[in-house]
Design a protein that fits this description.
Structural class: alpha+beta
Strand order of the largest sheet: 3-4-5-6-7-8-9
Strand content: 35-45%
Radius of gyration: 24 Å
Shape: globular
Mean pLDDT: 90
Helix content: 10-25%
Bound molecules: 2-acetamido-2-deoxy-beta-D-glucopyranose
Low-confidence stretches: none
Number of strands: 34
Length: 518
């Protein structure tokens, strides 16, 4: 047999080759039981740091270099992961609001947005307020971004495009004009990459009322759904897709029955469909005007008789994105493709109205897609029965006892919850981590009771949920961290570095308490 010359190279050269390998291949190298190879791999701080990043599902933020040696960066990352796992926040601070807020809100990887005080004549705000959540020089200071027109909702793509898009409602005689204002977030001026700073969606009669809105932006795609709930006719409702850069519509409006949408990948969107009790999946073609293809309808578990899905919302953070233009300030960024989606639905029966939440890892659902569907005229395989995807791709939670006011409760693969009645009876915060590797690690450790939290694996379950014909099986396990401290928040939110507890006053956000984990 020929002797391999690879292992007779100097160690530095062997290492230089190994650093280019994906970690699965490094695992194979470890398994081949060559002592030299093993010691090079196990002794390299660089490889350990890379492994730790992979395990944590983060990347280093190139725009905020830590200016530390590799071993200090590794220590920094391990501290961060440990403080999340053991529920040991590194600092706390409170952000108070000295203004009356409206119901609009959003939370990005570092910024909390809320609608400014409403104009009493319209009950709509014309500007948004925002605040950086992590501790730092600008923490707790509110800033304003102004639309100059009544705002019905908004969406952002700050990291990818430094873009904030506000949906405005402007009176124009007997009608109102619905527009999307595309602003550079850093300057508040029209976005330089948008050919038209304002997308005019349509004019609508005043008696149809104001629309419910969902808006998401990824890459050049802007998806907007509008529902005029007060209008019986339903003929102004629709899902709109634009290339926000060219200002051109990608499709004519598609019929929908409820708001709520999320990007699964930069060109695939999920639209929860309450009427059909499905998650509809659309593929957006790259060229303007080429349209979109209906790929799948993933069915929810079969509903029992006399029940129906009443509302159906979803969200996932961070969004998939192609590039970063406006750097975040945190040293570690979660990898977008690994993030989970959260769905919130209300199911009504003759006697009750019950809220449910379920979680879907984006990558798992993406693996279920059959992209060939778009090439078939008479596409079969569009409908996917619950049994074929649900148990392995979802985790259901009974939300009747959870606070559900804010859907901004996930980041990366983590979700945060608190009991609905926490303002009355202080309650622990729970962090659910759906990462498979973390689940395996924790399973090996069993239940761990630390000074600040109890950590355990919650295995697969079968829930007997009343509105469904059969028990709902969720095979996805998660790591649950339950804080020992008790909190009285009305709602909890989560972003890259923080858990944020919100307290509501009289229909307004009174304060945000930031637990900073890093
Ligand atoms: C989760 O686990 C997978 C492997 O199962 C890993 O590749 C990933 O980086 C982990 N972390 C996160 C947060 O996604
Ligand atoms: C509200 O309407 C009244 C009467 O039309 C007007 O005088 C007032 O300026 C309006 N307020 C605002 C804040 O626009
Ligand atoms: C937004 O404006 C800032 C400040 O002028 C600029 O640095 C940035 O490049 C702009 N963003 C984009 C995506 O054009
Ligand atoms: C909306 O709901 C109606 C009535 O239930 C149904 O006929 C229609 O197919 C639904 N539309 C979509 C896009 O699912």
């Amino acid at each position: 047999m020929m002797k391999s010359h690879f292992l007779s190279l100097p160690s530095e050269l062997i290492l230089a080759c190994l650093v280019n390998l994906p970690s699965a291949d490094l695992d194979s190298c470890l398994k081949c039981r060559n002592r030299l190879l093993r010691s090079i791999i196990l002794n390299s701080v660089f490889l350990r740091y890379r492994r730790a990043q992979e395990l944590a599902g983060v990347e280093e933020n190139a725009d905020r270099p830590l200016n530390l040696g590799i071993s200090d960066r590794l220590a920094c990352l391990r501290r961060r992961e440990a403080s999340w796992l053991t529920f040991a926040p590194r600092s706390r601070h409170t952000i108070s609001t000295d203004f009356q807020t409206t119901g609009l809100y959003d939370l990005t990887s570092e910024i909390y947005f809320v609608g400014d005080t409403a104009d009493p004549n319209t009950s709509l705000c014309t500007s948004l307020k925002y605040v950086y959540t992590s501790p730092g020089t600008e923490a707790s200071q509110w800033h304003t971004i102004n639309a100059g027109k009544p705002i019905v909702d908004f969406g952002t793509a700050l990291e990818e495009h430094d873009l904030i898009a506000m949906v405005t409602y402007t009176l124009n005689g007997a009608k109102a004009s619905i527009d999307v204002l595309l602003l550079n977030f850093s300057t508040g001026a029209p976005h330089p990459l948008a050919a038209q700073p304002t997308l005019h969606i349509h004019d609508v009669e005043l008696n149809r009322g104001r629309p419910g809105v969902s808006l998401e932006i990824v890459g050049q795609n802007l998806a907007l759904s509008l529902m005029y709930w007060n209008d019986e006719s339903r003929d102004m409702d629709g899902l709109y897709l634009y290339n926000w850069k060219s200002g051109l519509a990608k499709i004519a409006a598609l019929p929908i029955n409820n708001t709520g949408l999320a990007f699964l990948t930069p060109d695939i969107i999920i639209v929860p469909n309450a009427a059909e009790a499905t998650l509809d999946v659309l593929h957006i073609r790259p060229e303007d005007g080429e349209g979109a293809d209906f790929l799948h309808a993933f069915h929810l578990p079969t509903l029992a008789g006399h029940t129906g899905v009443f509302s159906f919302q979803c969200r996932g953070a961070p969004n998939p994105c192609a590039s970063i233009s406006r750097p975040s300030r945190s040293p570690f960024l979660p990898r977008p493709s690994d993030s989970i989606l959260i769905f919130a639905l209300t199911i009504i029966s003759l006697t009750s109205e019950t809220e449910y939440t379920f979680v879907v890892p984006r990558a798992r659902l993406a693996r279920m897609l059959d992209l060939r569907n778009r090439e078939l005229d008479d596409a079969t395989g569009i409908d996917v029965d619950w049994e074929a995807w649900g148990p392995q791709c979802t985790r259901w939670l009974d939300a009747t006892t959870l606070s559900t006011q804010y859907i901004t409760a996930t980041v990366g693969q983590r979700m945060v919850t608190i009991a609905r009645n926490a303002p009355l009876v202080r309650a622990p915060i729970r962090v659910l981590d759906f990462n498979e590797t973390n689940v395996q690690k924790q399973r090996a450790n069993g239940l761990v009771e630390g000074p600040h939290a109890v950590v355990r694996v919650v295995e697969e379950t079968t829930l007997d949920l009343e509105p469904f014909a059969l028990p709902v099986v969720s095979l996805l396990p998660y790591v649950e961290t339950t804080s020992k401290d008790l909190f009285d928040y009305d709602a909890v939110l989560i972003n890259d570095e923080n858990i944020i507890g919100a307290r509501f006053g009289d229909r307004s956000v009174e304060s945000l308490e930031v637990l900073h984990f890093g």
